[in-house]
Amino acid sequence: MDVMSQLQRQWLEHSAFLRKEGYLDDQFEQLRKLQDESSPDFVVEVVSIFFDDSEKLLNNMARALEQKVVDFKQVDAHVHQFKGSSASIGAMRVKNVCIEFRNYCEAQNLEECLRCAQKLQFEYSVLKTQLEYLFRLEQQIRAAGG
Amino acid sequence: MENGFSSPRSESFPAGLRVLVVDDDPTWLKILEKMLKKCSYEVTICGLAREALKLLRERKDGYDIVISDVNMPDMDGFKLLEHVGLEMDLPVIMMSVDGETSRVMKGVQHGACDYLLKPIRMKELRNIWQHVFRKKIHEIRDIEHHESFEGIRLSINGSEFSDDCIMFSGEDLTSFKKRKDFQNKYDERDYGDHSSTKKHRVVWSVDLHQKFVKAVNQIGFDKVGPKKILDLMNVPWLTRENVASHLQKYRLYLIRLQKENDLKASFGGIKHSDVPSKDTSGGFGLQSSIHTNQNDVANDRDQFSGSNFYGQDLDAKNHDGDREEIVLEPKPDSKKPLTADVPDPQDTRCSQMSFDHSSASLGSDVNYTEFDCSIPKQYPWSECPEVQSKQEHKLLLQLEDGFSQQLPCVPQHYIEIDQLQSGRDISSPIKNEPVLVRCKSHRESHISPKETAIDDFSVQPKSLTAYHQSFEPSSTAISSMKPQAVDLSCITDLESCQRNLISPTDSTFPPFNEDLTVCWLQGDFLNKNFGLPNMEFADYSDHGFVADIPVHLYDTLTSDYECPYDPTEYPIVDQGLFIL
């Protein structure tokens, strides 16, 4: 029980932290609400899909930016897609970087685009780590009988 | 679907509503699926637009509503929207993370019954059943409209298409209503049947639609009417109302596509111009054109044209050096930003409904009216931000000049439009004759002048894009055109083009695919522009410009289907548009 309440407290704290720091917004809450008996792992499933998709998009972006002649429209298309994706799970920080990124794409500012791509990669990695930690806690809680 | 209401399921309506969700984002697909299931809807998810169309076609009556994302890799969401509307007549909801007004506007213009912004909440999804319900109710009303619509068309027998357009889209609401009443009486029996009996939704399969298009081509778009189509199609179970309804949608579809192409073209042009392309300009263009259309419908068209087509960045860019003045000059006070004249929704709707074509081309039309043929005038490019429509027109004109695709038969209208737009100095006088000449000789494959014209015409979409790129030359050429000269030669040529074109090229018209639409669009667009039903036309005739031109153009466009798109141009334009 002690372990359980400890885990739960950790989970709560971490969730609050993620919200407070803007890693996740209300959309994530919406996902939680969708989780029910018929799909008990809904959030984890959705986020997994998001991770897979994101990695692909980030790769596409990187490749597009590596071209000798950068096709900014193409890069923008990828970023736009990523923006939509990040909005789906409420990844607010990631989404904000996307918005900034798109502006630079439009301005065809390669230097800034590269910077944004890096930033995006960073924000995404951080978010992934945070979420994985959260899910691990959930797993442990469940294992502990919660 | 009727079934939704008549089956036992209807008891618990909207539970069990059959929703098809189309989105290339797998995360969203999963979320939406879950949300819709929670609303007790029956959900089918699909990651590709083409796949979705396939599903829809396979299970003709299998879905009640479609929810689709706007940005998809394999097919533009708007295109899917058009297809679904035309073939299946299902309500479609668009969604996107991009909530820019222009995009939403576009969605609505393409027929979306709603536009949701991501992230989507469950409560928004819960209410989507209303669209299904509403559509059912409106189906009957649509039939009425179609009947009257068709009635007007048929009654204008023999007149040029432009006249027809003028008839209906113009201020002829009263006559429209009269005809509507007449039609209503005539079809009262049918109405009665419809309202009392359950209408079976006709699912327009690919085959059926192909038959439809074939029939339309055979008859000739300007002479088309549901009865004629029905007879030609020879589908026993199909009713005139079905055809009428479908015909109207088809028209709207073509108009929208035309608009889209024009927008793309102008946008593409903008992109290609030296002016740095910004979202604003692109989006602006869109907005302006939209506004233009709406405004035109709503207000005095005259006003608009001037303002709309002024001072586009693009134009500014294009003209270098000494441009000749514009022959036609828009009314000075028309220099209003388009946005200022935001049309009221009513008008938009009106235009959308029966006069869609006119609204589509209104932008250009408006310009026309504005034109005062003989007065050359310099207009500052930057005056009116909404260059959009002007651009389009200009493009057409310019096409002749140095582009591979020229629209030789570009009627006066174009020239005039150009003038409107040209705050810029357009250096070389555009002569109609050259245009015509070009028309004739321009295509390699030309067999005859007429054919050439047609070819040029059909290339429109591509031309437009190409046009945009080489904006300068054409504008100059066009602007200085002398109306009279142009008129005569143009008309002549156009006429010949028209005659030539009239022979339907069934074979060249692919059944409902994008190419077709593009071509149709062009034709439609041109037709509309030129044959603008509104007063613009009337004004033009004063100048000796003839409404004929548009008709001819129209014919040209529709009949000649081979529009060799330049794939490179098109996608660019496309992207440009969407990146807004």
Task: Reconstruct the topology from this structure.
The complex is a heterodimer of chains A (146) and B (580).
Chain A: H1 2-20, H2 26-34, H3 42-66, H4 72-89, H5 92-107, H6 110-143
Chain B: H1 2-6, E1 18-22, H2 26-38, E2 42-46, H3 49-58, E3 65-69, H4 77-88, E4 92-96, H5 101-109, E5 114-117, H6 122-126, H7 129-155, H8 161-169, H9 173-186, H10 188-196, H11 206-219, H12 226-233, H13 240-272, H14 279-298, H15 301-308, H16 313-318, H17 345-353, H18 356-370, H19 388-402, H20 412-421, H21 432-442, H22 449-458, H23 460-469, H24 471-479, H25 483-502, H26 514-530, H27 535-543, H28 548-559, H29 569-578
Parallel strand pairs in B: 1-2, 1-3, 3-4, 4-5
Helix pairs in contact in B: 3-4, 4-13, 5-14, 7-9, 7-13, 9-10, 11-12, 12-13, 13-14, 13-18, 13-19, 13-23, 13-26, 13-29, 14-15, 14-17, 14-18, 15-18, 17-18, 18-19, 18-20, 18-26, 18-27, 19-20, 19-23, 19-24, 21-22, 21-25, 22-25, 22-28, 25-28, 26-28
Function (chain A): Functions as a two-component phosphorelay mediators between cytokinin sensor histidine kinases and response regulators (B-type ARRs). Plays an important role in propagating cytokinin signal transduction.
Modified residues (Phosphohistidine) (chain A): 80
Subcellular location (chain A): Cytoplasm, Cytosol; Nucleus
